[in-house]
Amino acid sequence: MYRAAVIGLGSIGLLFDIPRKATPQSHSLAYHLNKDIEYVAAAGVRQEQGDSLALIAPEAKFYTDLSAMLKESNLDLISICTPSDVRLELLKTVFEQSAAKLIFLEKPVATSLEEAEGIAVLAEKHNRTVVVNLSRRWSEGAALMRQAVKSGRFGKLKKIHLRYTRGIYNYGSHLFDLVRFVAAKMDTVQVLQRVPTNLDDREDWTYSFTFTAENGSVAGYAEGFDDRDFLMFEMDLYLEKGKIEMLKSGDEIRFYATEQHPLLTNVRQLVLEQTEQGLHGRSSSIVNAADHLVQILRAGVKPVCTLEDGIYPLYVADALNRSYLNNGSVERVSVNQYEG
User: Fold this and answer.
1) By the 8 A CB rule, do 29 and 57 touch?
2) What is the SS3 assignment for 213-266?
3) Which domains, and CATH codes, for the chain?
4) Pairing between β-strand 77-80 and β-strand 102-106 as defined by DSSP bridges
5) What are phi and psi of 162, to 5 degrees?
6) Which residues form the Gfo/Idh/MocA-like oxidoreductase N-terminal domain (predicted)?
7) Is 81 within 8 Å of 27 (Cβ atoms)?
8) pTM of this structure
């Protein structure tokens, strides 16, 4: 068995599973349930977090002293679920005081590109593998969409429409990565409007913007929404011979083919070919991620979401902020040496 610990016992580290949901949502419960992982320790900042941990994973020893946990636990795998603004210094401590080869890092990787790139340099220096939890990559829905696009089932991708809220770092990091994972990498962005949301006080801005992808061959539009009205995380992919819709934050995927229009000559119309519903209830992304981490440790398989993948959304966010500050200029998404 592989020995694991979690650093940071907030929502994604633990509390999403108190009370328990239909499927596991936190790192702690995913490790507790995995037959190949021994969940030995967790670090937090308050004793009440340890009390909550005991409800989900009583086998894990709770620490408020991070150095003591790293020294005593002989770890193979460490989840980092702290706020992103402390990641660089935290990872320095982890790399210096633990021999754990695999780090499972929550998104966003950091609060700035400079810190994210510093983390990449640090991981390479210490020869550690960092997997980033851009959770849609572990989902069945993302796999279905990616396969449909990459196989050419509906022909060449032509347009992308996105609808989102809650910031370019929060929901945006998932959305920008999902576009890249299932469809195409963004080349340029141009901000049209900044949309107010609950995350404005964190300076995690939400923009409506246009973009290009695949060296300009794909056109895109992303519309921002105010989460004080409702949550929104949707994507439409328009292809030569069909359309793919992601609805309800990925819980439902619809695939449309084309057929001859019944009234118009030489004109085709969309027709619903396949619907996948209840995807969130079929499997847990965090459980799928834990299984994948075991395969990395056991068989050396390539990570589904590398550190480079995790940094990519920060380059998109940086380009969007530059566009907004430059009165809606067209800005290139420059990923430098960290392009995955």
Assistant:
1) yes
2) ECCCCEEEEEEECCCCCCCCEEEEEEECCEEEEEEHHHCEEEEEEEEECCCCCC
3) 2-133 (3.40.50.720), 137-282+313-331 (3.30.360.10)
4) parallel
5) -125, 145
6) 3-133
7) yes
8) 0.92
